[in-house]
Every structure is written in structure tokens, then in C-alpha cells.
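Moderator note: this is an archived Q&A kept for reference. The question asked for a predicted structure of one protein chain; the sequence and the answer are reproduced below.
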Amino acid sequence: MTIPDSSAAAAAQHLVLDAEALYQELLGGLRRLVSPRTRLVGIASGGVWLAARLQADLGLADAPGTISSAMHRDDFAQRGLAASAHSTALPFEVNGAEIILLDDVLYTGRTIRAVLNELFDYGRPASVKLAVLVDRGGRELPVQADFAAARVALPAHQQLALAQDAGGRLRFDVENA
């Protein structure tokens, strides 16, 4: 990660995040969090890519789950049902499971609140931990990641978007909202 100037506006203009390097940090961090009862759940869509890749790289036998925030968003009335290729699919028993939720970017905390509501519609896990590639601050709810590969500051009008190429390589794009 390269941030040449300490001001947030200047940093956002020059922000370079190596998503592949951050993935390796995430992989290393999760090695310490994973137990035999751990089940990975990726938040649509970037978290889904992470969960699939981590499942293979960590050698976990159980397929990862996918979770969508669409039905529990607090802005559902304004946004409606967002078009997404991913809907919730949890191919394991949620009751008693040790869940690690995976997301690409943690910002306000509202997506995490929504997916927790969705997760508990499927059962009562023993524990839920949150791991993200990037924590960009700006929380509106009291949510924090158990593991974040990087922490960066961006102006509210910019967002980080995780992209994946055909070969599965990850990259971050900085976009104006």
C-alpha cells in the first residue's frame, strides 16, 4: 500500500492497494482463527470470491457459504432488491457452527448488520467473527473486524470496489460514488 501524503484527500488520489498482497495477509490471519468447526461465509459479492479461495488455500473440507444482505438492509425501501448473482446459500448446519464472515471492504457497518440478521434466520451459531481485506473506517454502527488486512482512510465520496479477473486474481478500483 502506498499513501504519499498524510491528508485524506491526497491519499485517496494516490491510493494503491495490492489486493493480492492483502489476500495473503488475510490468509495468514485466518490461519490463526480457523478451527475444525469453522465455516466460512462470504458476503456477496467480494466476500464470496474470498471465501471460495480461502476454503481451497486453507484446505477446509466444507464448501463455503454465501450470504446476501439484500433482504435485511435498512435502506431497502430506497434501494429495493439489488440485482446480485449471489443469494444466501449455507451448505452446512448454522446451529453451533463457528462462522467467519468474509467481506472485501468494511465501511459503515450496515451490510454487516444486515447479514447478521440474515445469518440468524438460518440458526444460532456458536460464534461469528468478521475478517475483511480493508477496513476504511467511517463506521455508523458499532461493528469491528476481528481481522483486517489493511486500514485506510478515504473521503466519503469515494469507494473501493474489489474486482476479480478471469484467472481469479483480485484488484481494487477506487471509484467516485
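Archived answer notes: The longest strand covers residues 98-106.
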